[in-house]
Amino acid sequence: MAALLKRHWARILVTLLPVAAMAAFVVAPSRPMLDSLDFGIYDWRLRLTAPHTFDPRIVIVDIDDMSLQAVGQWPWGRDTMARLTHELMDRQKAAALGFDMVFPEEDRSSGLNSLRELADGPLSDNAALKAQLESLTPALDNDGNFARAMHHHRVALGYYLTQSGTPLTKGTLPQPQLKSTDFPAGRIYATQWNGFGGNIAPLAVAASAAGFINAYISSRSDGLLRLAPLLAYFGGEHGQDGYYESLGLAVYRLATATEQITPRFAPTNDKAPPLQALVLGSGPTATTVPVDQISRMLVPYRGAGGATGGSFQYVSAIDVLSGGLRPGDLSGKIVLVGTTAPGLQDLRATPMSATFPGVEVHANVISALLDRRFVSLPDYARGFELAVLLVAGLLLAFVMSALPLLRASMFFLLVFLAVIAFNTWLFLAQGLVLPLASALVTMLLAFGANMGWGYLVEARARRGLANLFGTYVPRPLVEKMLESPRNYSMRAESKELTVMFCDMRGFTRISEQLPPVALQSFLNELFSRLTEIISRHGGTVDKYMGDCVMAFWGAPVPSDDHATSAVAAALEMAEAVKHLRIADQDTEVNVGIGLNTGVMSVGDMGSLVRRSYTVVGDAVNLAARLESLGPAYGVAIVASEQTMQRSRGFESRPRAGSRPPAERDHLHPVGLEPRRGKGWASVNRPSCMK
């Protein structure tokens, strides 16, 4: 780790910059861009994973355009609503009925109030009128008829809540389902309202339950209805402070005979602990509904909305009123009365559709409660988001910085897909809606920063390295160096290397006999063949000097068997030049090669005008002298004893015969040539010198 930091600290730091910036952004109170991205991801997954199946338990009686044309424009008389209720509850035997509408004013369409004013006013002395009025009252009292139709049936009415500087109240508000004392003091665990629009008293008393029909759309969101409040807090007067249930929850409780609602809080020591869920009912059959801190649940929509959406059965209200259904067709089903008529403005924008019937939102809530099919945004979501962001960012910063481009890209793709897969698994298997956008954006930015730094800075170093070594280092070695350019520098250092000098015998005589063009062609072919052999054995060509080639092994790419590679190259070079011919002459070409292994200085050396990567030192000079000893010993290759000790797979013996006196005390040369079939061996006199 320390070596990685030392070598790639700049690249790691650049990669971590977007991680740190996003971490600060994640914990900010307001983050509209991230929230918008997370909303988009949630909506896409919701549409993709919705069951898209039909729920036969819930039926929507639709006050559609056809019904309005047949009965008349809205609002309908309460006598019509009474007939609708009788049909659904008495003839169809529905399990529960919910009206997604409010009846805040008396129905005066029958004229009963006008007749009463006459009987109590100008015609107050007309006893016959009063008697006739008494007999007509039951038939003309539309509100009373509607109330009697609901009596002793499981019917829930809707109402709405308001929030304004001056509280406005109208109609009757039911009793709250939960008191303020059922929750810890110090905070409100639901959306707070101070006004309402309720139903008139006769209807409110006759109904078994009532629920608010408000939809919650955050002012900071994109206007789509994703959350449905199950509870709302009303802070009014006259003992009505408390928590009120939604219409969907009220109808569900009627249909399932669920009485008890119990809030469940996170196990903390806080005076006002976070709200985790609402428990409906008690015992093993209780339903635990995950909610957020203001008692809202994410609506797990079944599919597309509307009569053609395929999620719920839609029945036109006129078909019910006209007796078009057979008795018992809706037996045991939960019925919601609502409208899809565009003029009545009960269409909502949801993740499933831009025009989603409001009554079907309640239907989806009830369906989810019946199936116990929930998705939730847990209270630890922000901490989870930060943890994933940091882990993924740190992993990418350290690992990508140590890998070449292709493998770094593959690693990024692996981490990117792994984060998506883990988040999706939590959504599908655990029903957890956890933020994903910040991690994805951070990973993309980190990848871009890492690759950008690699291209702008390290690619420049790679290009410089390739330009420096590409002409005299084998291409495979250059490619290996480019994987970690920081490991290779021009700085001189002392290393044990093996150096070679290769000189052509009799070059002066040959050059005098050949014209310049022929000589040039011959030297090009000779150096090309020798250089190809040196490169194939991993050597570095140092320079060409007239008819001499200088090369070394073990730098710039370290090698443990540099002596072995050098000896193998020398033997192949000695054999390869025999097949060269000079300008159509039948003359055999011979070379002399000197090899030595020792400690020498290697690096980028030269003047301000011209520099090269080369080796210098006594060990280099010794190799040059060994090359010149070949004719004295009658061999093509002369290697120092240290070279043969470092090499493997070769046999050698000191050369017999006389040596120049100046060399006897410190040189132990050996002669080498190829031996067919069994590797290499030393001989008394190689064939190239015969």
Automatic annotation (TrEMBL):
Alphabetized Pfam families for the sequence: CHASE2 (PF05226), Guanylate_cyc (PF00211)
Protein name as catalogued: Adenylate/guanylate cyclase domain-containing protein
Cross-referenced SUPFAM superfamilies: Nucleotide cyclase
Biased composition (Basic and acidic residues): 661-676
Domain Guanylate cyclase span(s) in chain numbering: 498-627
Transmembrane segments: 383-403, 410-428, 434-456
EC number: 4.6.1.-
PANTHER family: ADENYLATE CYCLASE, TERMINAL-DIFFERENTIATION SPECIFIC, ADENYLATE CYCLASE, TERMINAL-DIFFERENTIATION SPECIFIC-RELATED
Superkingdom as given in the UniProt entry: Bacteria
GO molecular function: lyase activity
InterPro entries from the UniProt entry: A/G_cyclase (IPR001054), Adenylyl/Guanylyl_Cyclase_3/4 (IPR050697), CHASE2 (IPR007890), Nucleotide_cyclase (IPR029787)
Region (Disordered): 644-690
SMART domains: CHASE2, CYCc
Keywords: Lyase, Membrane, Transmembrane, Transmembrane helix
